[in-house]
Fold each of these.
Amino acid sequence: MSGVIDIKVPDIGDFKEVPVIEIFVKPGDKVKAEDPLVALESDKATMEVPSPRDGVVKSVVVKVGDKVSEGAVIVQFVGAGAEQAEARPVVSAPPSPVSAPAGVAEVRVPDIGDFKDVPVIEIFVKPGDSVKAEDPLIALESDKATMEVPAPLSGTVREIKVKTGDKVSEGAIILLLATSDTSAAASSVAPSPVAPSSAPAAAPVAHPGGVDEKAFALAYAGPAVRKLARELAADLGKIRGSGNHGRILREDVEAFIKGGAAAAKPQAAAASGSGVGGIDLLPWPKIDFAKFGPVERKELGRIKKISAANLHRNWVVIPHVTTHDEADITDLEQFRVKMNKELEKSGVKLSLLPFMVKAAVCTLKKFPEFNASLDGDTLVYKNYWHIGFAADTPNGLMVPVIRDADKKSVPEIAKEMNELAKLAREGKIKPDQMQGGTFSISSLGGIGGIYFTPIINAPEVAIMGVCKGHWKQHSADGKTWASRLTLPLSLSWDHRVIDGAAAARFNVHFANVLADLRRVLF
Ligand code: CAO
């Protein structure tokens, strides 16, 4: 093995010849799995290609402007995986008629119950492919179920030992995997043939009963659904499929998780059947709407699909709580109108939003855990204040980021916001203009509404939702009343990081700053 690993453009759907618009790495960079390598932009969407593994960049094969399709090599890694893997001892422990070279694991058919001589119906990898633990390797199909064999550990496919149509049983060698992942290898491969049950669970949602791996392997579901189930720690064996012949669909997994089953189902209920606390979840309704009237079908755009996946993950994984409050913006509104008159000739127009960005920075400085991110069990406090704002665009929701908002004036923020919102609406915004945010504001104030529950933009830990300011009678003592322009605030926060009292204080401070901007000086 040369010690050089080709990192290729993954499956990007039907897109072909997509221009590279940005390159995030250079030779010598140390990259972690999931770090972005390059950004591609088709006429419909901007896509980032994340690294499938840890490694050190040897060379960047593409340049900005190159057009690439699935399978094109974009970056070459050196060392990390390949060479170390070569140097390691054999990680395949089970006694085997096939001897594996050093650093190479034999991946075998796991325990698949009573099934024997099951045909291989699909092979998802080829020699040279880099795979991560849990990536599907092959699919087997018996007369009763489709089973997928996932990689038990990360590595590079050396050699495939089966072909489509071959009939295999437990213990049969599927492929050879060059790996450096000894910890995963130790738990994954020894002492019995590789079983999906031993793959490390990288699940963000805990499943108290643990996943029944045999049932998981036997569940009737495709690779993407299995991957989703792994990510969400959903026990496929307990999900009732609503597809043809009981095939488990993505929405079945989502409904299972949404119902809280993964987190809340007691053992007894888990044993007695699918559902939440013993109550069976209904499969997602499959309705032929055309039976009831004319319909039109339109596939979601690429950006909507991407944001849907992000929103869904964030909603499922983050324990959200939303705290509502209101700010008296009577004086701020007068000031805003006055400043707009003064700025008339400059062409800059101030809405409330840039003031809210300033109020957010001031409040985040006072409550730093709101300007942080979770990294495992560690909270990463950021000493920069990059504020994202939700922008409604014809393609869907986008969140451009105002960098270093603490260092910018209100008119500067207003100007930048207009420029970013325009780029977003025209589909010209670049990925880096939507990255690095530390806190977001979602304003529906130009439209209406009173309160809503914004979804946190991970890895941020809080988001401020704002609705339309309205006049309301206020009284400080219950005796004298005054009409005040009142701004509804809805702060969603990650309860793993933030407590309710801190959230209430955050809102009070934010509202106080908006009520009297002089507080920014304190
Ligand atoms: N209360 C009362 N009036 C408000 C207001 C509020 N909270 N916020 C804005 N307004 C007013 C503005 O002052 C402006 O009035 P004038 O035209 O009379 O000056 C008008 O409403 C329109 O404002 P705007 O929406 O153009 O500007 P903005 O700076 O408030 O917002 C942007 C910019 C890009 C955030 C906005 O256009 C947008 O896209 N909002 C939608 C965000 C969204 O979709 N959030 C939901 C995400 S969750 O799905």
Amino acid sequence: MFNTREDQFANGDIRTHYRTFEVAPLTPHIGAEVRHVDLAEPLSNEGAQDLHDAWMDWKVLVFRNQHLNREQHKAFGRRFGTLHVHPMQHKYRGDPEILTVKTTAKSPYTAGDGWHTDVTCDAVPPLGSMLYVTETPECGGGDTLFADMYLAYRMLSEPIQRFLDGLTAVHDGAIPYIGSYKSTPPPGGYPRNEHPVVTRHPVTRRKILYVNQGFTSHIVGLSRAESRAVLEMLYSHINSTPRLWGRVPWQPNTLTFWDNRCTQHHAVWDYYPHSRYGERVSILGTERPSA
Ligand code: SIN
């Protein structure tokens, strides 16, 4: 819990100037628009290091007016690691490293319409995702909300932090992929894995609240009723604390790159019957989430 007003409002480490570009923050702690970087151009090592630093600082980076083909999109992803293949890709033909995010008047659902972290059912979930939106709804809307899960942990009281530290929870792909998306599982089923409820970011070493409504089925070692009550309390903290959030209003040809280890996101479907189209590349994590 914050001890003082100064602590609560401390934003002392805001950085907006990097060697090769500047950023314009969307909020004081999550989300920044990167100025004057053309992702279709080769990225220098210095530029890549700056982007990594800015990504660590801001968690969500937004690049406007980008004109990328699929190979350029994937090449940008590969600057940060190996590309991830989504567990639902067995259902689709096409490039396994590109996840299409398409919503029209005929869509039964829109992907990611609820707070979640991508694919935490995997043993090693993606460390980040890059969504490149090329078509936005004519009526406006279709924004994506992001939540800062460092801050979500930091805003909990110390007794609750102590209670959560050391617990683990199960993350089950069947919840969204079968439950919400009605997708036939691949042979062997969708992934299901246990992760700490509070993780540490492998780069910043800061603590993160790491349960999400999209994938977490239960907390290990608690009764069903206890687990449900604790998870509902944590989800309500995320759902009802606007200070945790940043909002990305898309324009055509915007690419947003989020750190999937310390954020959650929520795609807002407020534009029915209009359409929205994007393609996502995700980068495989380098290790299992750990405390
Ligand atoms: C997702 O990756 O969950 C989709 C996000 C979005 O469409 O804004």
